[in-house]
Amino acid sequence: MPKPDDTDRMLDELLKGKKPEEILGKEGLLKELTKRLVERALEGEMTEHLGYERHAPEGKNSGNSRNGKSTKTVTGDSGKLEIDVPRDRNGEFEPQLVKKGQRRLPGFDEKVIALYARGMTTREIQGHLKDLYGAEISPTLVTNVTDTVLEDVKAWQNRPLEAIYPIVYLDAIHLKLRNSGHVRNQAVYLSLGINMDGQKELMGFWVGEAEGAKFWLNVLTELKNRGVQDILIACVDGLKGFPDAIESVFPKTQIQLCIVHMIRNSLRYVSWKERKIVAQDLRAIYTAATVEAAHQALETFAEKWDDRFPQISKSWQRNWENIIPFFSYPAEIRKVIYTTNAIESLNAQLRKVTKKRGAFPTPESVRKVLYLALEKASEKWKRPIKDWVAALNHFMIVFEGRVQQ
User: Fold this and answer.
1) Which of 31, 109, 288, 389 has the fewest other C-beta atoms within 10 Å?
2) Facing residues of 230 across strands?
3) How far apart are CA 311 and CA 314, in angstroms?
């Protein structure tokens, strides 16, 4: 094996006088080196298979020998390569680097999947690979490569879950799905848990017809069947029937309506010019020190705005019992509970990778894109959420007997 100094000298000699395009271009030195390295590796596999080197005397009367080569076209980072694959006389040689029937070099599929995970469409992936590597691939190839993810999605979606989650955020995003020639809105239901270590964990996602309490009931039942025995706090939007659906599966769970959703729904009734001041007055409600102070702030809000926007205070009064649970906790951990910012942030990332696609052709295409995007997003979920230790200690007191040390 060449020493490091010898390798440097060989590379210097090889690259001497070469222009960048002669090295990295579509027909450059890198492509030729890739071809030769693959062929050398295949020759090494053949030597291991036969048990002797080319032209070695041990090969005489061994019962098997080399029998020429066959040409095969494969796609790799350097575009399409024509490589010579060695054959043996008995037809027993099974190459591992480029297996029989394999048309892409190792690592190529991973690049296609990585581009897909970033939200690139099939057409964009085709153009990207052609521009960078001169590799022309078909839409069918992109579909076939990314379809390999579906088995991972199935296993992930059915994996066992932990017995207890202190907080679970339940929300849905909407996208367009093509069905029988028609484009329809489709809901994707998301369940994001905060586990006992204070780390985010996406428990699963489900593609449904439209957001509704009945579908959420099926989601919650599945979570229970996968091992979830208790949820301390479920943070949800104001969907009608949602609290009842949760209570039927997890009767001890405390329901917390998302304040962000409440504010967003309230401001729908307000003109753009007045939204800022109305939002400030609403803030006085959910930032109050106590439930009593919050209720007083709501009454003050109603006195000021009911003549023009009576729906707002009525909505807060109607949902009051599910709005106020977070007031039972210290100020530093209230934000962990009363807002679905954690899942809203996740939703923003998912919308980023889905917005280019218009309408998805099948539910499977939705699952592939979202799973890959979620896998990428979860790479950042290494640390516990802020103030988690304080929150957990408080949960142990409030939910005595349900949270173990």
Assistant:
1) 389
2) 164
3) 5
Q: Which amino acid type is present at position 365?
A: S
Q: Which amino acid appears at position 341 of this protein? A: N
- Residue boundaries of the structural domains of the chain: 4-149, 162-398
Angle at 89 between CA 84 and CA 90, to 5 degrees: 120
Burial class (CB in 10 A: 0-12, 13-18, 19+), 37: exposed
CA atoms within 13 A on the CB side of 387: 12
Rounded CA-CA distance 133/157 in Å is 35
The number of CA neighbours under 13 Å toward the Cβ of 252 is 15
| Strand segments (E) across 237-390 | 254-257, 359-360
pTM metric for this prediction: 0.70
Q: Which residues pair with 247 in a beta bridge?
A: none
- Smallest Cα–Cα separation from 257: which of 244, 241, 243? 243
Contacts of 49 (CB under 8 A, 6+ apart): 88, 92, 93, 94
Pairing of strands 164-179, 359-360: parallel
Extract the tokens encoding 63: 């019962």
- Tokens in use for 369? 């894109």
Kindly report, residue by residue over 228-268, the tens digit of the pLDDT: 999 999 988 777 778 888 999 999 999 998 888 899 899 99
- Alpha carbons 30 and 385: distance in angstroms, whole number: 46
Token pair, residue 328, equals 């039972």
Phi, psi of 245, rounded to the nearest 5 degrees? -65, -40
* One-character DSSP codes across 111-150: HHHHHHHTT--HHHHHHHHHHHH-----HHHHHHHHHTHH
User: Distance between CA atoms of 149 and 36, rounded to whole angstroms?
Assistant: 31
The answer to whether 135 and 111 are in contact (CB under 8 A) is no
User: Could you tell me the CA-to-CA distances from 278 to 49, 269, 300, 304 in Å, in that order?
Assistant: 77, 10, 12, 10
Q: What digits encode the pLDDT tens for the residues 296-352?
A: 999 999 999 999 999 999 999 999 999 999 998 887 778 777 765 677 778 788 888
Asked if residues 193 and 204 have their Cβ atoms less than 8 Å apart, the reply is: no
Separation in Å, CA 344 to CA 4, 331, 340: 52, 21, 6
Helix (H, G, I), strand (E, B) or coil at 318: helix
